[in-house]
Amino acid sequence: MPTFSLVLIVCAIAAAGFLLGRHRALASAGGDARTLHSLPSYYGYHVGLSALIPALGVLVIWLLAQPALIESRVSSMIPAEAVPENASLSLVMSDVRRVAEGLELAVAEGALSNRDIRAFDSQTTDLRAILGDLGVALGADVRPEVLEAARSYRGSSKTGRLAMTVVVIGLALAGLGLAYRATHKDFRARNVVERVIMALSILAASLAILTTVGIVLSMLFETRNFFALHSWTDFFFGSTWAPNFRGDSELSILPLLWGTLYISFIALLVAVPVGLFAAIYLSEYAGPAVRAFAKPLLEILAGIPTIVYGLFALLTVGPLLVRFFGQGENGILGVEWMSGATSVLTAGVVMGIMLIPFVSSLSDDIINAVPQAMRDGSLGLGATQSETVRQVVLPAALPGIVGAILLAASRAIGETMIVVMGAGAIAKFSANPLESMTTITTRIVSQLTGDTDFASPETLVAFALGLTLFVLTLGLNVLALYIVRKYREQYD
Amino acid sequence: MTDISQSPTPMGGAAGQTKGGSLLTQNARTRKRNAAEMRFRGYGIAAIVVGLIMLLVLVTTIVSRGTGAFQQTFITLDVELLESKLDKKGNRDLDDIKKVTTFGYAPLIKGAMESTVDALGIETGLKSKELAGLLSKDAAAQLRAYVIENPDQIGQTVEFRFLAQSRVDGYLKGRVSRDSIENDKNISAGQLDLVDALVAAGVIEKTFNLDFIIGADASDQRPEAAGIGVSMMGSLFMMLVVLALALPIGVAASIYLEEFAPKNWLTDIIEVNISNLAAVPSIVFGILGLAVFINYMHLPMSAPLVGGLVLTLMTLPTIIISTRAALKAVPPSIRDAALGVGASKMQAVFHHVLPLAAPGILTGTIIGLAQALGETAPLLLIGMVGFIASNAPETIADGLLAPNSAMPAQIYEWAKRADPAFYERAWGGIIILLVFLVTMNTVAVILRRRFERRW
User: Fold this and answer.
1) Residue A86 pLDDT > 80, yes or no?
2) Do residue A208 and residue B380 have CB atoms under 8 angstroms apart?
3) Chain segment B379-399, per-residue pLDDT in tens
4) What residues of B are in contact with residue A313 (Cβ under 8 Å)?
5) What pLDDT, in 10s, does the model give residues A258-271?
6) Given CB 3.0 to 4.6 Å as the disulfide criterion, which of A40, A56, A346, A419 pairs with A423?
7) Could you tell me the CA-to-CA distances from A168 to A7, A16, A40, A68 in Å, in that order?
8) Contacting residues of A for B54, CB less than 8 Å apart
9) How far apart are CA B406 and CA A421, in angstroms?
10) Angstroms from A345 CA to nearest CA on chain B
11) H or E segment at B158?
């Protein structure tokens, strides 16, 4: 039974439980709701939730645990000699899964029957051709061990699903029954329901922790696998990024880090002056009309999806820069400095545009938080408005502004689409902003898109890169928040 | 009295000038300071103008380059559905008709093109293959689908509206010119002359292109047939998943943190976590999705369900932060009043605070959804790029689990392709995406204006 309909059935049982519970509570009070301990609907919720929560909880845990359990059972069936050289167990296991899915599909489409599958012999039947007809492409002929494992995989997942259906529906009914029996006019239904809702909301709040733990663990785990296959000294201290899918790659983060930092630097070079001056003007000079007009318009820039900026970089800014700095004699400047549209400058400038509202709205908040008394004092001593801003307001707001710039930097380092489309793919150390360079995020995307093989260092390196990125941005964020918080304490 | 007579006269007077001059005539230092003031103010104005110009450039680029995608060039032809080609046995058996591949239909199109050109009396030295080359490669498939649908039409002459090939389309839109096709194998100057003649005759015309909005993506060879409709469905299903998960979880988490949580280390950790998650680069969520949902849980690659789950995790912090702000804005007197008439704490929150905070929560949710709708990077990692879904999903389960693309991923896919005809599609896709975003944000603003109460 598909999971979706199972969920629907459980929900239907819960809805029935609501009506039953409410009805029984009212009946036990002789139809007079005033003698009940709680409002009648609380009795309904109590029965409904008792049916719903244990059943759905078990369902989720089952769905999470079953693949891992079956995987470990089946993979112990594959003898070590069945794993071909230069491949790993996980590759064989993905074959097994593919064959098992293919068999399932074949049965569903009527091309094979269950008995056929049991009678299969990989020597006599050409399973690959049968599955190929159904659109399941297999890389090689099916070996007997793989077929055997696939059969067992399919068998156990089938039994597992059946058991899951029975257990989940059984639990829902049992929960309904127990809660229904407990329903009585003196039963404290409201207290129980409130406790359950409280527990659920604590669970929801801890999802944030779970996500962080999930991010860190999944990346740590794969990064450990990566360092088992590839030396960590090359990753951190090497100088070349040259993935090679035949093996023997040089995978060093340093050239990528250089590209990332260079592009982010150019982005900040654009965003910080423009954003900061815009914030100063809006908070210190502009009248309410200008402010109401310019601030939302600037903030539109922040709401535009990054894919739009990426396209803008690739198709508009890049070719424009090429017309200035490239094309030799035909170009506007008549120089041949730039060969393609993708370059550090392309990505940096466009990313800078994206960051303008980010810097300006954060700085605007911070400048507004500087007490008016400080401005009044300075103006009263005869300073002009710009002198007040430069010598009083900005120094007071400086820690906050530094925090804002750090946040913008973290955003720039983690930005993906603009650099994927505008920065290029060549990893190198170069100071020329008109050359194309590559970044950490671009490489993560290119190593993880398409067919990924989780046993090769070329794929796993993406997790090490991701972890580095995560640590880097997290560090910047924490530092920025620390600075901002420390600054706020001074005036509150 | 001597004091007054000895004090320097305000205007004129030699003594006054040595001290600093008239208040009405600025001295050098004042002029310098005022100039600095003007410069500073100028920088501020310049910064704002730069920002606004960037916005203007961005919007005009999108509009000017993308509107073309909403128009498409069509060629209207009368095609004689020859029985000798389509149904040799003459028994109208569908199985026999289906055996004729699109190659079998090509001669019909060539014939129709030739007879149309002849009937109009246009002199052209082009071969019949070059004539048919004006049409999209889709034309034969379109013809075949029609014949299979209506086998009784075989032997008659039917009027068809075929897509023109992308170079012809580009020529009419000004993207392709006689200079730019010198080395182009797909079209020749002679063919463009014919196009001019056919446009004059009304056979070729440019009309609104509904297929771009509701159609499916097409292969590299047929940019004229590509549409964004199916990936729009993918985005829709992802948003449904995000809404169904992120809204209840986000609201529950915010209620706990804002109304019930005791001040202890656990809540501290949760709060720090949420604010950090809001700043984690989106691609990291993609890595999480790939590792957990696809590699560990074996959910299908490219499925909108997985995309929705990843985007849910990404949007949750946004929704939690705005929901908490909305809850905080409800004055404590409401809670006190509810408690005072005997409500439990939870009843006070669910019956009174939550309804009052609902507009704010909704606004935050819509803004979070808009953010998720435009997000691309995590989708690249879970395989929602490079996949061409040819049909819109038919059932809800299909919509959630069958491989599909999403609007931003589709735009990225088009931007990567070599043929510039796809760039126009990409810009057009962006217009559609932005229309959605603007609508959502407008709804959010209206909600806030209309329903939010100021206490």
Assistant:
1) no
2) no
3) 988 888 766 667 777 777 777
4) none
5) 999 999 999 999 99
6) A419
7) 9, 16, 27, 19
8) 301, 353, 356
9) 18
10) 16
11) strand B157-163
Produce one character per residue of A336-359: b if its CB has 16 or more CB atoms within 10 Å, e if not: ebbeebbbbbbbbbbbbbbbbbbb
Q: What angle do CA A475, A480, A481 make, to 5 degrees?
A: 100
Q: Do A204 and B256 touch (CB under 8 A)?
A: yes
Size of interface A-B (CB pairs under 8 A): 262
| B186-216 residue pLDDT tens | 778 778 888 888 888 888 888 888 888 888 8
Is the distance from CB of B430 to CB of B62 less than 8 angstroms? yes
Banded pLDDT at A409 (limits 50, 70, 90): very high
Distance (Å) from the alpha carbon of A46 to chain B's nearest alpha carbon:
15
Q: Does residue B152 contact residue B239 with C-beta atoms inside 8 Å?
A: no
Determine how β-strand B157-163 pairs with β-strand B204-208.
unpaired
Using CA atoms, how far apart are residues B149 and B261, in angstroms rounded to an integer? Answer: 64
Residue B163 β-bridge partners: B74
In single-letter form, the type of residue at position B377 comes to A
Interface touch B291/A463, C-beta < 8 Å: yes
CA distance A443 to chain B (A): 11
Closest CA to B403 of B255, B294, B264, B328: B294
Closest partner residue to A305 (CB to CB) among B37, B46, B433 is B433
Q: Which residue of B has its CA nearest to A388?
A: B37
Cβ atoms of A39 and A190 within 8 Å: the answer is yes
Tokens 């980010």 locate to A358
Q: Name the minimum distance, in Å, from the CA of B341 to any CA of chain A.
A: 15
Quick one: which H or E segment has residue B161?
strand B157-163
Confirm if A5 and A168 have CB atoms less than 8 A apart. no
Closest CA to A309 of A258, A357, A365: A357
Q: Is the dihedral of CA B92, B94, B99, B100 positive or negative?
A: positive
Give the span between the Cα atoms of A461 and A222, in whole angstroms.
8
Model confidence at B15: pLDDT above 50? no
Which run of H or E residues covers position B208?
Answer: strand B204-208
Q: Which two tokens stand for residue A465?
A: 């890169």
Q: SS3 of B157, please?
A: strand
> What is the distance of C-alpha A476 from the center of its chain?
19
- Joined together, the tokens standing for residue B298 give 């074996």
Q: Which residue has the tokens 């199985």?
A: B95
Enter the pTM of the model: 0.86
**Given B291, B317, B377, which is nearest A218 (Cβ)?**
B291
Structural contact between residues B195 and B204, judged by C-beta atoms closer than 8 angstroms: yes
On whether the CB atoms of residues B276 and B375 are closer than 8 A, the answer is: no
Q: Please state, in angstroms and rounded to a whole number, the distance separating the CA atoms of residues B445 and B433.
A: 18
Distance from CA of A124 to the nearest CA of B (A): 31
Phi and psi (nearest 5°) for A326?
Answer: -125, -160
* Token pair belonging to A453: 């093989």
Residue B376 has its nearest CB partner, among A218, A307, A478, at: A307
Which residues does B335 contact at the CB level (< 8 Å), separation at least 6?
Answer: B348, B349, B352, B353
Q: Which residues on B lie below 8 Å from A206 (Cβ)?
A: 270
Q: Which residues contact B279 (CB under 8 A, 6 or more apart)?
A: A407, A410, A411, A473, A477
Q: Which residues of chain B have a CB within 8 Å of the CB of A477?
A: 276, 279
Q: What is the ipTM of this complex?
A: 0.87
For residue A330, the 8-state DSSP code is G
- A chain contacts of residue B58, beta-carbon cutoff 8 Å: 301, 304, 308, 312, 353
A469/B34 touch (CB, cutoff 8 Å), yes or no: no
- Is B434 within 8 Å of A285 when comparing Cβ atoms? no
In contact, B324 and B258? CB cutoff 8 Å: yes
Report the residue from A97, A201, A212 with minimal CB separation from B255. Answer: A201
